[in-house]
Q: What sequence folds into this?
């Protein structure tokens, strides 16, 4: 069942979103060659806890960290640890915050030092996929309008859209209905209504769309070893249109 949020709930989620955005900004400013993915997790975790909130991901279905840190061909759910970032890498960071009973979730892909022009384009297009999807988040349309907009933006640029992983509703639970595919799957989906809060999160591959899950049970990589990028905001649909809640 899709839960529509009241104005008060959206304001509470905006507080959570502000903190999630600040945590992600902190991590982005910490990304550099020579740092470990585990150090990024520590920085985010300490910031979230210091501000009286909880990391949404920590312990979620057994996930062992506060953030997901996915490098190069890792799409999502990379477990932070001893891996050292090097110049030329791209690193996708996904994190959520629970504050006053509500969650907010956001993700971004960062460059480590100098990266290739192809990698820059992948990151730029993935961001544009999000904004195209958000522009389709309009009351009265169908959910598939968002999916179609994301897919068109990605494929028009020569990239592919991950199929196994999708966006989602969010609120008191980290993952709520509805699922938000980044591709058209034959279903028009529910009508979009004011009060919906969605995580729109394109996951875009430089090469083929197929992915594999690693033996750790979490890390998802591109099957062909190509680069992947991720961009996400928590977005509420209001009477005045879509409103990004994960902004600092």
A:
């Amino acid at each position: 069942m899709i839960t529509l949020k009241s104005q008060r709930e959206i304001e509470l989620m905006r507080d959570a979103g502000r903190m999630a955005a600040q945590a992600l900004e902190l991590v982005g400013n910490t990304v550099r060659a020579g740092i470990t993915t585990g150090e990024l997790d520590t920085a985010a975790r300490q910031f979230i806890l210091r501000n009286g909130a909880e990391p949404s991901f920590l312990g979620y279905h057994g996930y062992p960290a506060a953030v997901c840190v996915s490098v190069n061909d890792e799409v999502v759910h990379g477990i932070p640890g001893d891996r050292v970032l090097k110049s030329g890498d791209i690193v996708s960071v996904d994190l959520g915050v629970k504050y006053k009973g509500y969650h907010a979730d956001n993700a971004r892909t960062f460059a480590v030092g100098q990266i290739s022009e192809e990698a820059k384009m992948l990151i730029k297009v993935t961001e544009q996929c999000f904004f195209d999807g958000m522009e389709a988040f309009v009351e009265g349309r169908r959910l598939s309008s968002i999916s179609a907009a994301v897919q068109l933006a990605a494929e028009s640029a020569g990239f592919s859209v991950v199929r196994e992983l999708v966006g989602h509703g969010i609120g008191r639970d980290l993952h709520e209905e509805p699922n938000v595919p980044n591709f058209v799957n034959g279903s028009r989906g529910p009508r979009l209504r004011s009060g919906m809060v969605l995580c729109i999160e394109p996951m875009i591959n430089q090469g083929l769309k197929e992915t594999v899950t690693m033996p750790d049970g979490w890390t998802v990589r591109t099957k062909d070893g190509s680069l992947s990028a991720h961009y996400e905001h928590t977005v509420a649909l209001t009477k005045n249109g879509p409103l990004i809640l994960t902004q600092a």
User: Anything to note?
Assistant: The helical segments are 7-30, 37-50, 117-135, 144-156. Residues 47 and 165 are 28 Å apart (CA to CA). The chain has four helices and 15 strands.
